[in-house]
Task: structure prediction
Amino acid sequence: MSAFANLLIGGIFHAAVLFLVAAGLQLVFGVQKIVNLACGSFYALGAYFGITFVTLAFNAGFPAWTLLPLLLVAGLLMAAIGPPIERLLRTVYDRDESFQLLLTFALVLMFQDGFRFVWGANPQSLNNVHLVYGKLASGDFSVPVYNLLVIGAALGAAILIGLFLQRTNYGRLLRATAENRTMAEALGVDVRRVYAVVFTLGTLLGTVGGALVVPTSAASLDMAIEFVIEAFAVVVIGGLGSMWGALIGAVLVGLIRAISLVIYPEFEILAIYLIVIGVLLFRPSGLLGKPAT
Result:
């Protein structure tokens, strides 16, 4: 039972970080109709900068318990890269989807070279500093408190995003723009500003997710590609454009990954994509996505 609980918490922790990135991907597509391959690069940027920011802060005398707030601040700071990239993407908003995919993939390659130039080719880590918060233990069950804090932060983010989209005037503007951009413009909505806000929010979710994960894993040049693959698996399973779908898809992928790593590690990626294939075969729009009309 303890082994199962450890497995469950590990899968949900991965799902929490994965949800943040996938939610940013969903939000950008839902409003701007752009499939943003660069979302994994924002995740990696948050991870790398999170390590640098925390290291500098600790060297300046910040206490170890400030780890989580420092990582959140690091992710927030890196979201500043969103507006200039959104301006670049304006050149392909009204062009064929292939141009959008090529441009965002080019950003992935550029970011990867940037990471190599600034942080080098070797993986970077914080050496388990997250254990400063201690562990919850009972018998064979043991989980770092930091992991639980990250899971809580992801749940809080999901609730805040839902409230923002459903209960605020600006959230209604976003939904109106997503439904009919031309009508929204005719009614006086500044669509360019809406797009800038949405893309920056999507970037923020990615950079914060990357910053939160680095205490438990190393930042490496390959992490952007690896994570964007999982993020797209989440989107396909949950349904493109559905925020609740992103949450459910992230939990499924996180749990499948955790179980596969324990039972048969070589089966990890295959297990995820068997689920993706099954969803595409029997429900192409995803579990909570709207069927194309």
